[in-house]
Specification:
The model is unreliable at 75-91 (pLDDT under 50). It is globular, with a radius of gyration of 17 Å. It has two domains: 1-78, Orthogonal Bundle (Rna Polymerase Sigma Factor, Chain: A); 88-158, Winged helix-like DNA-binding domain superfamily/Winged helix DNA-binding domain (Arc Repressor Mutant, subunit A, Orthogonal Bundle). It contains seven helices and no strands. It has helices at residues 2-24, 27-44, 51-75, 96-102, 105-116, 121-128, 132-154. The protein is an all-alpha fold.
């Protein structure tokens, strides 16, 4: 079992971390979620049909844990100990990735899975446990927002 977990961690830890980071925009919480995902794998010990099934399971658990974290944060707001620090200033660098990171979480996740991980809309709907039309709409809205956000940076290149 230890050899299996070590190989899965080596193979997928970067992907799990990137998904968590894109969902939460915080390195510390993304690291925590990454550890929790692999702990859940150890405890659940699911049987996978293929590598793709294993990868999809890890992605789904990661996305669900991020959703649960966000629900907890929004339902139990806390007061920051630091002064007012703007949340998205570190992403306002005018790059495409900066614009993606400035999107609301529901859009970031869909954009990340579609463009960065290469999943088709149908598989994203399975991973997120959402309707295909919902995923298509989220992706279309994200593209529209990105177009608006990046219009000033890149201009009209037609």
């Amino acid at each position: 079992m230890n050899a299996y977990i070590s190989s899965v961690v080596d193979k997928y830890s970067d992907m799990v971390y990137r998904v968590a980071y894109h969902a939460l925009c915080d390195t510390h919480y993304a690291e925590d979620i990454t550890q929790e995902v692999f702990l859940k794998l150890c405890h659940a010990r699911p049987v996978f049909e293929s590598d793709e099934h294993e990868k999809a399971w890890l992605l789904r658990v990661t996305v669900n844990m991020c959703k649960n974290y966000n629900k907890k944060v929004y339902s139990h707001p806390t007061v920051e100990l630091t002064e007012n620090i703007p949340v998205n200033d570190e992403y306002s660098d005018g790059t495409v990735l900066g614009a993606v990171m400035a999107l609301p979480q529901k859009y970031r996740t869909v954009v990340y899975l579609y463009y960065f991980e290469g999943y088709p809309i149908k598989e994203i709907s399975n991973i997120l446990d959402s309707n295909i039309n919902t995923v298509s709409s989220l992706l279309a809205r994200a593209r529209k927002r990105l177009e608006t956000m990046l219009e000033g940076e890149f201009g009209n290149e037609n």
